[in-house]
Design brief:
- The structure is a single chain.
- It is built from 18 helices and five strands.
- With 405 residues, it is mainly alpha-helical.
- It has a single domain, classed as Rossmann fold (3-Layer(aba) Sandwich).
- It has a five-stranded parallel sheet with strand order 2-3-1-4-5.
- Helix 2 crosses helix 4 and helix 13 crosses helix 14.
- It is globular and about 55 Å long.
- The N and C termini lie far apart (56 Å).
């Protein structure tokens, strides 16, 4: 069996080759010594269709610069090798154990979801997947020769190679191998993650948005979670992804006993923050793939539709408990917000958990760096655009209007 280092070695090397799925897959097969891509059990046909669309986008609209091409090759090599290894692992372990009812956070991005996820992850009763675990699946500790430290060290180097650990990126969003990661990264090896936030690949993004993709993406995520927990089917999972609001039916089909909480924040602050993050992420691979003045209106239209459909879904599913979390209250008193959340779900919060949360808040630097300079106008927007698109949402949910620039 090849070493972890040798399997993922190509993810740390420059590559100028074209994005051709057969060649990419052959390289992953050679690196892993494996060749089973999942078959019907893991929706291989849809995986291949999405990979084809992604590669077409990377050769087209994404307009990659030379370094971006190497970085995208790195990401795809990790994705493909990890898919092969996960399929092989599940073949050996067979049916895995049950998943305890998870806590699942969602809501608009840049609305405190990452901050709250990090806070709740300090509770030892909550199980999270780290970025390294989501990207590089291996047998759980005690079942293999790879240590968590080895996996973290390797993935930290891969993150650095891909450009995610530079200060200008981590000031916007914290990327780290050992940090709690979002659900979409547990779905990445299904080629089902919304990589449109990293590369301008419209046809791929359209495929990822299909209902069928959502179904097999969640099935893949469940398989990843079962592999990570192994036989230790105790403790509840703590999950998070803003994209869950786009597929609440798929989320509940995968996790019917989910305890869902939903973050709210003034879209007048969220939209330019999301746009700023996207432009920074796009810049890691391209200098010119997206016009910022066109990005703002597109995000407004997209999220106005998503939030409207979400309200309709909640009205049609009153039996599904969803706890609303307001950004202003979360930032004002994070631990009290966590306590209210636990109480709504009938969960106990011990004094040791409160102590752990307090320690986490002292050490956490997320959102505490220098303020970034951007505003609505930088992305082709004004306050009237926000009020027209989101005024009803703001008023109906009692969202605090913040100072917008």
């Amino acid at each position: 069996m090849p070493s972890l280092e040798s399997i993922y070695a190509a993810a740390l090397k420059p590559c100028a080759a074209a994005f051709e799925p057969p060649a990419l897959m052959a390289r992953a097969e050679a690196a892993t010594g494996l060749g089973d891509w999942g078959g019907p059990r893991w929706a291989e046909d849809r995986f291949r269709a999405r990979l084809d669309a992604l590669c077409q986008g990377l050769e087209g609209e994404a307009r990659l610069h030379d370094l971006g091409r190497s970085r995208a090759h790195s990401r795809l090599h990790v994705l493909l090798c990890s898919r092969l290894r996960q399929v092989d692992h599940r073949r050996w372990i067979g049916d895995a154990g049950p998943l305890a009812a998870p806590l699942i956070g969602t809501g608009m991005p840049r609305a405190g979801t990452t901050f709250l996820h990090g806070l709740l992850s300090s509770d030892p009763d909550n199980r999270v997947a780290t970025a390294a675990q989501a990207a590089i699946p291996v047998p759980v500790l005690g079942q293999g020769a790879v240590s968590e430290a080895e996996r973290n060290a390797l993935y930290e180097r891969i993150l650095a190679f891909q450009g995610f650990t530079t200060p200008d990126v981590t000031a916007i969003h914290p990327y780290a191998a050992a940090a709690p990661e979002e659900c979409v990264f547990l779905q990445e090896a299904a080629c089902a993650m919304p990589l449109g936030a990293f590369y301008n690949a419209p046809e791929f993004s359209a495929l990822v948005g299909q209902v069928e993709t959502g179904a097999d993406a969640y099935a893949w995520q469940r398989g990843m979670m079962q592999s990570l927990q192994g036989d230790l089917a105790t403790g509840r999972w703590l999950l998070k992804a803003p994209s869950h609001v786009m597929n609440m039916d798929g989320l509940l089909n995968a996790f019917p006993d989910a305890r869902i909480f939903l973050n709210h924040r003034d879209p007048g602050k969220v939209i330019p923050s999301v746009a700023s993050l996207y432009m920074k992420l796009y810049s890691l691979a391209s200098n010119s793939s997206v016009d910022p003045l066109a990005l703002g209106p597109r995000l407004v239209a997209n999220w106005a539709g998503i939030l409207g459909r979400l309200d309709e879904w909640r009205e049609a599913h009153p039996q599904v408990p969803v706890v609303d979390v307001h950004y202003a209250s979360l930032i004002a008193d994070p631990i009290a917000t966590a306590e209210r959340l636990y109480a709504r779900f009938g969960l106990d919060m011990s004094e040791s958990t409160r102590t752990a949360m307090a320690a986490h808040l002292k050490a956490d630097h997320h959102g505490k760096g220098p303020a970034r300079s951007y505003g609505l106008a930088d992305f082709g927007l004004c306050e009237a655009d926000i009020e027209v698109a989101f005024g009803a949402y703001i008023d109906s949910h009692g969202v605090t209007r913040e100072k917008r620039s």
